[in-house]
Amino acid sequence: MVQRGVALTDDVDVCCPSVLAEPLAEADADDLAQVFAALSDPVRLRLLSLVAQAGEICSCDLQDPLGKAQPTISHHTKVLAEAGLLVGEKRGRWVWWRIVPDRMAAVRGALEVRD
């Protein structure tokens, strides 16, 4: 399995406080900034959307819908994986990607107002 660093834990309630409820600790702010930076590119947003819609998708199947060469796709999947949003599994020559649901939930949770 191809995995990059994921700072948020699987427990959404423990990972980080809501940005809107209380000031973030420096480590949480750094972690969320990495996620938001990864999401700030239109190609990566489209890539994430394609992976989420497919459930799991081969890197080879991302070239046509994104209109990008394989090295560019590899760069963008690496950025998303380092932010913990995607996880990949190498199968033969290709990597199959899927989203990390707990990480996505943690990011959504960081934007919610909590009582």
Highest CATH level, the class: Mainly Alpha
Q: What is the succession of H and E elements? A: HHHEHHEEH
- Given helix and strand content, the structural type is alpha+beta
Global morphology: elongated
Tell me what you see in this structure.
- It is a single chain.
- The protein is of the alpha+beta class and 115 residues long.
- The chain has one domain (12-110): Winged helix-like DNA-binding domain superfamily/Winged helix DNA-binding domain (Arc Repressor Mutant, subunit A), CATH 1.10.10.
- The protein is built from six helices and three strands.
- It has helices at residues 12-15, 26-39, 42-54, 63-66, 70-82, 101-110; strands at 57-58, 86-91, 94-99.
- The chain has a three-stranded antiparallel sheet with strand order 1-3-2.
- A hairpin with a 2-residue loop joins strand 2 and strand 3 (94-99).
- Helix 2 (26-39) packs antiparallel against helix 5 and helix 3 (42-54) crosses helix 5 (70-82).
- The longest helix is centred in the N-terminal third of the chain and has 14 residues, at 26-39.
- The radius of gyration is 15 Å and the shape is elongated.
- It starts with 11 loop residues before the first helix and ends in a 5-residue tail after the last helix.
- The model is unreliable at 1-14 (pLDDT under 50).
